[in-house]
Every structure is written in C-alpha cells, then in structure tokens.
C-alpha cells in the first residue's frame, strides 16, 4: 500500500484544480495517482484552501456563462440569463409552473347526481 504525504497531496490537488479548471472535489482524483478514499482519509475534503480553489473556478465559470448568455442572440439563453437576474415578481410572471400550482386546489372531478339515481331510491 502506497504511503502518501498529506501536504504533497494538497499541493498536487491545488495544481490539478487550477490547471484543469475543476469545480467538484470528486474530480480531483482523476488527475492524481491516489484514490478518492485516500483523499478523504487525508482530510483533503475538509481543507479550506481546496474548497476556495474549487469555488473560485465555479465562480469564474458562472461569470463566463452569464456573459455569453447576455451577449447571445439565442432567445433561450437570454431568458435563462434574465431569470437569474429577475426579482421575484418578474420571475413569477415568466414562470408557467406558478399558474399551474395555483390551480392545484380546484376539484378535478365533480359528482353530479342524475334524476334517475334519485328516482331509484324511492
């Protein structure tokens, strides 16, 4: 069984995160020589420096996507960007699901008694 140095694993992990623009912790081991288990055993998942590097990549990716969506002529991307920026009232007006949820309480079936049923009871 290979012995790993925690500081070296941390250094290698940071390098992999930055070089490959990783955004999830579980992606790191694909670029290292150790397993996920080893990474967890060494407590890498708790290291704030690694979390910060992953968060930074995630933030940069989000900013890049929003810029592309904003500049795009694609209506779907523009609506997605608008939904991210909209206040609650604007978002409610764009969302069809809200109207569907408001109608949930309406009875779907109504029982109607016919005259035939009433006359048979006598």
Question: By helix and strand content, what is the structural category?
Answer: mainly alpha
- Unreliable sequence segments: none
Report the major sheet. Answer: none
- What is the general shape? elongated
Instruction: Report the count of strand segments.
Output: 0
Number of helices: 7
Order of helices and strands: HHHHHHH
Report on this model:
The protein has 2 domains: 1-63, no CATH class; 72-105, no CATH class. It has 122 residues and is an all-alpha fold. The radius of gyration is 28 Å and the shape is elongated. It has helices spanning 6-20, 36-41, 48-71, 75-85, 88-94, 96-102, 115-120. The protein has 7 helices and no strands. The longest helix has 24 residues, at 48-71.
Q: Which keywords apply here?
A:
122 residues, mainly alpha, 62% helix
Question: What is this structure, in a nutshell?
Answer:
With 122 residues, this protein is mostly helical. The protein has helices at residues 6-20, 36-41, 48-71, 75-85, 88-94, 96-102, 115-120. The termini are far apart.
Set out the fold topology.
Blueprint: H1 6-20, H2 36-41, H3 48-71, H4 75-85, H5 88-94, H6 96-102, H7 115-120
Helix pairs in contact: 1-3, 3-4
């Amino acid at each position: 069984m290979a012995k790993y140095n925690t500081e070296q694993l941390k250094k290698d992990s940071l390098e992999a995160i930055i070089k490959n623009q990783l955004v999830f912790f579980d992606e790191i081991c694909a670029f290292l020589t150790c397993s996920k288990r080893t990474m967890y055993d060494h407590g890498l998942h708790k290291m704030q420096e690694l979390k910060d590097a992953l968060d930074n990549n995630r933030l940069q990716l989000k900013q890049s996507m929003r810029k592309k969506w904003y500049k795009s002529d694609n209506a779907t991307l523009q609506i997605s960007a608008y939904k991210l920026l909209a206040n609650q009232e604007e978002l409610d007006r764009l969302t069809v699901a809200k109207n569907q949820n408001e109608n949930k309480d309406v009875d779907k079936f109504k029982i109607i008694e016919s005259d035939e049923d009433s006359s048979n009871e006598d």
